[in-house]
Write a structure and sequence with these properties.
By secondary structure, the chain is of the alpha+beta class. The protein has one domain: Glutaredoxin (3-Layer(aba) Sandwich). It has helices at 2-23, 68-82, 99-110, 125-133, 179-209, and strands at residues 33-35, 54-60, 88-95, 118-123, 146-153, 159-160, 162-165, 169-171, 174-175. A hairpin with a 5-residue loop joins β5 and β6. It starts with a helix and ends with a helix.
Amino acid sequence: MKKKIVLAVLFILPVVVYLFFASGVNNFGRLPILSENVSDVTAFDSSVKLKGKITILGFLGHNISAKQGNAFNLNQKIYKRFGEFNDFQMVMVVPEGSQNQVEALKDELGKLSDIDKWHFAYGTDDEIKTLFQTLQSNVTLDADLFTPNVFIIDKDLMLRGRTDDEDEGIKYGFDTSSVAELNNKMVDDVKIILAEYRLALKKNNADRSK
């Protein structure tokens, strides 16, 4: 009997250890904080607010029409999956004067899903650059004020991401031009941060009921 138990442990334990590490440390616990004190878009557009929301923040640049593919990937892989969660939103920062392009993009996105939680914040070039700098990331905006990367911002205006990504080490943003990256990495990280807040809410409710 003891021999069978020993053999079972020797067989099962390596499998359990493998599954743990194969799942990735990032799937356990909190999603790491990479930057604090990210500026709120209310600094230049009072119609949109980051604080108090779990936000997917993006920068579409001046040529929004050419970036519809990025928005569609984000909509299909992230927004349609998580858009019904309370306090979740998409915020795309765009230059002033691009209202017509935004309306055209919203029309196209609206054919794919309900876009109530897609928001667009308008700012000057300098305001957009200043906001982007507060992310303190290793990502850069191009001359058009565009990046394919989007960022997870928590309710307290902190940038969340990965500190042990297998490809980049520290991972600040997620490339919307890569469906594989959205599927294999961003989906997991959004799940984690939503789970964090759900657990915190349950704890607060339990504490109040004591």
